[in-house]
């Protein structure tokens, strides 16, 4: 598989009245065509910031201050606004967290769909309408023809998120950035929406960057997972590997914090639920060295000084010299 | 939705009852109607008879009811000062005030909305900052001061525009209009700007704030994420969503404009209702005051109701309930 | 006490120092208030002393004009009064009426708001419905009507401090609503807090609870409203005086001076109108700016 999206050493800065905050501090990751990459981390870890950086919609004053973003063989982090605009919707789609607020309340959903379809795929209004109805049908809106004339407020939250997905797919993009697509929904609807998103993207070979803090969603959906902590990658790897054999102490902590009924990890029926001591440092007060070291049980004095880079460990890459030592480290 | 309308209607009626009651008390107890109608030489017996004839000895609710019925028939009594029917006096002044108010509202919207859009879309631009700074003057300075400044610059100093009166008017039926003559148009420019300036700055600031607010919403971000060009995002999506509060506020401002015309009409000696009312206040001409009070209240209440209706007509979220869920 | 120190803590001062507009506005407001307070000391003439006036000095242009007189820096009015002195004294009247109106509105509104919020029931209903009705109309219209009514009732033989008190009354009555609404809202929240319930349990009377416990907690937003309303009160006073239903000509306010001077705008004596107008404009603008900044900086939930 060739990589569709590649980030190398991405840095996002937020200038502030008392200096500059580094929200994303050297993140490298890649997504292959048709692949679903889960981006997990606590709020404030920088997940959404990465998504916004890729699609070029970082809220001012945040901006890409270093590194590169490549979409296929095209570098997209310093495109002119109008060039970036042509990518949005057409090659990269985005789905936001809250379907209640993602749709323009004063526009019929049919108009919003037709407008988006015709923008990216020039066609007569009648064909765009047919296409819109087809999309609505595909995302599971019953009686789509009639619903074209409905206003957003006439739909339930789950239905609205389906419409949002239809809108994101309307330009036939190659990559969808889904930023917490189910967080704002009822638990009963979450699974449906995730399955729908996964099926539609798989059918079309669309890659997905799935931003979430929900390990359950990741386990069900993602091919690979990338764990973020304080603006840096802690661990990346195939989802089966990371979930079953977490290596980075932070990932281990995350896994332990999930209520688990998995008999392989603990005694049957006994849910061991532990918490990582402390809280993730705020963006303004990130510790030196490995940002996790103040909360880490296996931290060494070196951890406070040296910033670890990800290196291979099994089928994953882990940014921790203690738990994923290289051969040289082991030898010394 | 029906209950919303009903509660608004009830509130409107309550307001009108309250205001008419105040007007009635004013009319009946501030100054003595009999003393105002007769001369000093009238005998006490004659006065008592007149008092009885006018029904001033009836129980108060009866008098109030009679007052209401008369007011509904536009019978507001006779002006103490001008010894003429108040309804006739006001009717003669009404066209001047309404024309002035109309032109002011048109000016406020025509200038306020585009400037607000400009300032909202490009808040950091030099023009936007300049307009915001100027609008602060418009909001802070008293209306009469702005009028005086305009007169000083454009009438006294430059001598371009007249500083008082309506210019030539044309009589159409019972309506005297200044909008059909060149001198009428020249005369209305300064007063209309003075009267509309406050509302213009208000609309401009509101549009700017709404645009900036809307541009931060998720659906605008989602529209951008779908690749919609700025032009469509700004004018197709953002502007449409700012118009509801703008319509509401502008509608509500129409009442204020007519009320504030009191000040502008004084500065420019514009022969409208406001000037009439002010003279009534200065001379304690109670029937005119009471009538103006009720007219203005009726106007405000009607406008508020109309704005509520309009609001419902524009916003689908109110117009159509949650049909499907 | 902690509330005061918190209000003056570094963030507020930081924002103040970062906002040159607010600093200039505050400085101008202070200068004007100082000028008004010290008017009897710094005014070059006593504009109300008839013996010091000479009709021969009337209509003198400002001192820098060729026809000016160095004794009268900003010129003289129709009666030969020194304009600078008249303006200082006028500023005094304008500010006095403005402050008094705001204080009156504040006391009235806070009291009614406390009653409405704490008593509830019909008292609450009555007060808030009256507030709703009043909010339908612009404050200046209400003040004008009230001033007119008072003039009507007190038409015979009103003089001295009477008209000023009535003016304060009219202006104050025209904007008590905002205070009442804010205070009522806060009372509804505070009244259910533990400390109020505890005070009630140990038998402290309702007025004592309101004044000792709840009032300090609602003063922040109330003071912000008061600052913003001060500009409004000054403008309303000036407008009423300009319209001839405000401060009587005997002790002219800035609005009265402008009204008098307006008659001479066309005959070339522009200074009689424009100087008081400029002072009024600067005053209204700077108080407004300061109030805006204070509101943004404290950002209480208003309205």
Unreliable segments of 5+ consecutive residues of chain C? none
> What is the alpha-carbon Rg of chain A in Å?
21 Å
Terminal Cα span of chain A: 37 Å
**Which CATH first-tier class of chain C would you pick?**
Mainly Alpha
Q: Total strand count of chain A, please?
A: 12
Oligomer designation:
heterotrimer
- Please identify the structural class of chain A as seen in this structure: alpha/beta
Helix content of chain A: 25-40%
* Tally of helical runs of chain C: 13
Sheet with the most strands, sense and barrel status of chain A: 8 strands, mixed
Question: Could you list some keywords that capture this structure?
Answer:
heterotrimer, A: 332 residues, alpha/beta, eight-stranded mixed β-sheet, four-stranded antiparallel β-sheet, 12 helices, globular, disordered C terminus, B: 325 residues, mainly alpha, 2 strands
Structure commentary:
The complex is a heterotrimer of chains A (332), B (325) and C (303). With 332 residues, chain A is of the alpha/beta class. Chain A has helices at 47-55, 81-87, 99-102, 109-120, 125-138, 144-147, 157-169, 187-204, 215-221, 239-244, 249-256, 327-331; strands at 3-16, 19-32, 36-40, 63-71, 74-75, 92-95, 175-179, 207-212, 224-229, 232-238, 311-313, 316-318. In chain A, strands 6-7-8-3-9-10-12-11 form an 8-stranded mixed beta sheet, with helices on both faces. Chain A has a 4-stranded antiparallel beta sheet with strand order 2-1-4-5, covered by helices on one side. In chain A, strand 11 and strand 12 (316-318) form a beta hairpin. In chain A, helix 4 (109-120) crosses helix 5, helix 5 packs across helix 7 (157-169) and helix 7 runs parallel beside helix 8. Chain A is globular, with a radius of gyration of 21 Å. In chain A, 46% of the residues are buried. Chain B has a two-stranded antiparallel ribbon. In chain B, helix 6 (126-140) crosses helix 8 (182-215). Chain C has a single domain (12-302), classed as Orthogonal Bundle (MetI-like fold). Chain C is built from 13 helices and no strands. In chain C, helix 5 (83-119) crosses helix 12 and helix 11 (206-243) runs parallel beside helix 12 (254-262). The longest helix of chain C has 38 residues, at 206-243. Chain C is elongated and about 75 Å long. The model of chain C has no long low-confidence stretch (mean pLDDT 78). Chain A binds chain B through residues 55, 57, 85-90, 93-94, 96, 98, 101-107, 115-116, 119-120, 147, 150-151, 153-156, 159, 164, 167-168, 170-171, and chain B through 217-230, 232, 236-237, 240-241, 244, 315-317, 320, 322-325.
